[in-house]
Amino acid sequence: MRYEEGDGAYYAxxxxxxxxxxxxxxxxxxxxxxxxxxxxxxxxxFLGSGFFVAPNWVLxxxxxGLMGERQGEVCQVTVVFADPDGGAERAVAGTxxxxxxxxxxxxxxxxxxVPSPDLALIRLDTPTAHPCVYLAERVxxxxxxxxxxxxxxxxxxxxxxxxxxxxxxDLGTVGSQIRLGDDVLxxxxxxxxxxxxxxxxxxxxxxxxxxxxxxxxAVGVEQLRTLPSPAGLLRDExxxxxxxxxxxxxxxxxxxxxxxxxxxxxxxxQVRLEKGAGRVxxxxxxxxxxxxxxxxxxxxxxSSLLDLIGRAEGRRGGRGTQPVPAPRSWRDGLGxxxxxxxxxxxxxxxxxxxxxxxxxxRPYVTAATGEAEEALYQWVRELxxxxxxxxxxxxxxxxxxxxxxxxxxxxxxxxxxxxxxxRPGERAGVLLELEPRGWERxxxxxxxxxxxxxGEVDAIxxxxxxxxxxxxxALAGPLAEAFRQCDEPDEPAVLQVALSQGELGLDVERxxxxxxxxxxxxxxxxxxxxxxxxxxxxxxxxxxxxxHLHTVGMRTEDxxxxxxxxxxxxxxxxxxxxxxxxxxxxxxxxxRPGPEGAEGFARLARTGYRVLLLRRxxxxxxxxxxxxxxxxxxxxxxxMRTAGHLPGKIHELRQGVWQKRTETYWSDQVALFYDxxxxxxxxxxxxxxxx
Length: 691
Hints:
The protein has 691 residues and is α+β, with helices and mostly antiparallel strands. It is globular, with a radius of gyration of 28 Å. The two termini are 41 Å apart.
């Protein structure tokens, strides 16, 4: 092992850093190309570095793992690591199980880099004993200029050696990448761990080295939260790679603390290191709590976890700005709690969160779930008994008793701990703003955010000057994160697409932002809104119309079509006189409406219509085509009774088109304009709330 300074000299670090460095190197592995004839102890087949994050799981860079041997859809590598019993190195076959960014399956072309997050998980093909690193459970609060430790394997004078730097610095972040400086990164170290030496936990994965200067880049381990989730309600832990890995990690460290071996555990090293400010639990207590949480089924969704955190922190009416990527597991949620001074109030927060996990809605239960809930409650109870008030202890007992009465998922869903779930119509949704750059045809500035019912919008991502053909790819990452923060397994969040009036025909719901995936409108309800709304002239009650449609009833009115031929939308006096339950149908709106179509829409907007059906593309053909749209749109609107059901119904029709159900084909070009007057948009050119 070499401890390396920036000038090439070597040194032996003092305790307790040396103990931490030993733990890091014990879990750091080499990754080799498999196959007979390769010497897995020499540099010939060496691909890069990695490290054990849980029993039989190795984390590395995608560009390292993808260089393995491909056998059809499977990519195989050989993982080489020190025998924990002190013998010779061991070489074990492994399979590339997950790659980020999603969809990356081929090795990078020479001279090209894999885009961030550039992470991969390798699962050993044979169960093997080995040590594991301790992963940070929160999105790291970067400390510009703070020291970090990193490790990795490299070829030194023709021999593979592990190199450890304790002189590196964290220079802050750019996007999802951590900038590293002040020491040398050597070729081959990609995939190695980056460690916060103050708290003794891995915060990143080495991605690349700088050419011609010290340092390079790393990817934060929190990017693992973006691993794809299975569709629908999770049936068991094994089918969600992220939760399977997290739970195995936390169980390992709890067991390692309970059953110490001859060498120090990560918990032992963390106790010796400088204690992190603002942590209410010591390292031993924290690893115990994480291990207990890992015995529970995971949260039903990121959305439900964010609501639970907000309730535990006493927030009402909004979650507050979330880290990106947002927390997904119980350990993530614990890491993101707003502990400040480590006093009684912070302990109450941690224990309230823990009891919320005990009482939470479950995606599934096992024979051991009840026992795991009991064990966590007893741990919480013991900690509260010595340090907190009698009234708070009574609160915990009451919550435990209530959780025992909620015997099924429906009860837990309806009665969450510390408050109610958002009522129907009050859930957070996803907002996509597309603002055309008037001087650049088919070029857009865009913003993606989470829109809360109270009117707040939290930014997820943005871009400028993106051409139309590249928009789906540019939006894939930010939209995936926003959906993760809002979706429930049985209720995908609504996507609101805010466009200028001249762009309302843009068929965003037909975009596939991930190659091969169903279009956005098949995956979830998609509605359009207006970035530059017409000023309402007050001739009729805009809010009255909205309320009537959502409480009393609906019926359609064909406003621009007569016997299949386009006609001008009537004047505003006539439009204002229509019944409050009217949903106008613009049958000839088109992809980019001409002056007459645009003016027709403007008249409707000025007279207070906020729910409309737009047929974006008029097919030339027999009159029956328009008649069929009129007839079936009228039936659907009447059957739905109130406008709050329309986004879900249009979603259902789009799924029918995707599934080739002929009775739904009439709706293929129909979009729903649904512009809630209670929650105006930020507007063109205005920034969403910064994260």
